[in-house]
Amino acid sequence: MVGREWLLHGHLQDRVGMALVMETVDRDEMQQIAIEEWMSASPVYSQRMQRAMGFSGDGVDTICKNLQLDIGAPHEFMDFRFRVRDERHAEFWLAHCGALMDVEPMGVEFVHGMCHTIEDPTFDATAAATNPHAAIRPIHRPPRVPADQMPHCHWRIDIDADSPPVQAHPMSARVEASLAATVEVESLGGTREDGLVDYSGPFDPDLRLEDLSTSALRTALQEFAIQSHLLLRGLLISVDGRLGADRVAAITPRLVAGWCGLSAQRLRDALGLEPTTAGLAAMLSLHPMFAPRSYVGLTITAADDDEVRLSFAACPASREGDAFTWMTALGGSMDAALDAVVAAFDPQASCTPTAARDGELHAYLVSIDRDRAARAEAPELAIAKISSGATFRFRAPGTKVMTPAT
Predict the structure, then answer these.
(1) Which end of the chain is more exposed for a tag (fewer CB within 10 A), N or C?
(2) What is the pLDDT of residues 310-357, one digit of tens each?
């Protein structure tokens, strides 16, 4: 369940981010920012995932494996189904597309923008991380005709060595040069005998996260978190180039307040966490914005029965040297965003700065005060809840839905 929530967390970042972008630009400009965001990040994290999960190659099976482990395709919410025809040809289709459910009410122009303008270059960029001669082309896609057409869309993946290679987006090199792109994730241990220890074996069109061993799943989770950091970097680099540094500074804490606040609520509800300091500490320890620890340098400790202490040490995120990670604004505008994240978990919770100790850059005390008035949700959380992902519920863990014939 946590794995699905972390995949969805990364996906929902784009929902809040694009809404904030459109406060100052039109739909066409928003689409160009979305294209740059995904084209710059997905090739970098696709290659990371291949290394982390032990699979490689230049065939369509490798491309399909990457799609199965991509925050752009969170399981069930973006219900991808696959069929590999041969080494150079495959198909996938979406039995359910949560993103389409979000944009269909906005009208056909938004649907066309997502399913045509944005997906054409970004799908190819993801595939090109495996083979620059790969192309992803629609068999059918929205706008849906008829309106209840199923599956929601259907695509083919073809590799043609004679076709012109897909060129990497220039911004991808900037994302690849970040410390987030090269950081090593921790070995968190876990049993290796209770599932797949990696994904080096044959492509499984019906792969579930439960099929991975606990050690492999913990590695995959950390990579999901890195994908979110890299996608955020792609978004903010694009905003910086098109709208300027002031807009980056304005958007970042608001994005975290809404996007990460929504994930705080989803984790609380999915895991049945109690509205207590212990429950709050559990949510913080499982929140993907704070993972992997090797990148964000976070330590969570119980200060006493009523408080949890968050401390951030010098880490790769703090050494990025730019404004394209949310950690840049710690000690400033990000402090209010952290407060909004814990208030999303419980409206009587708060996160306040406290004195840093030796070796710490920033520290905070998190508590729940039942004598304080419950706070209203942050406006950015209301923006996040426009997405159908806010209320989407996953099937019971372990439920396997086989790929149907089409």
Answers:
(1) C
(2) 999 999 999 999 999 999 999 999 999 999 999 999 999 999 999 999
Q: Where are the domains of the chain?
A: 2-231, 246-390
- Strand order across the 349-354 sheet: 298-304, 307-313, 360-368, 349-354
Q: What is the pLDDT of residues 193-234, one digit of tens each?
A: 789 999 999 999 999 999 999 999 999 999 999 999 999 999
Measure the CA–CA gap between 80 and 155, rounded to whole angstroms: 10
Residues ≥6 apart with Cβ < 8 Å to 207? 68, 199
Does the bond joining 146 to the residue before it have cis omega, within 30 degrees of 0?
yes
CB-CB contact of 246 with 49 (8 Å) = no
Assign domain 246-390 to a CATH class. alpha beta
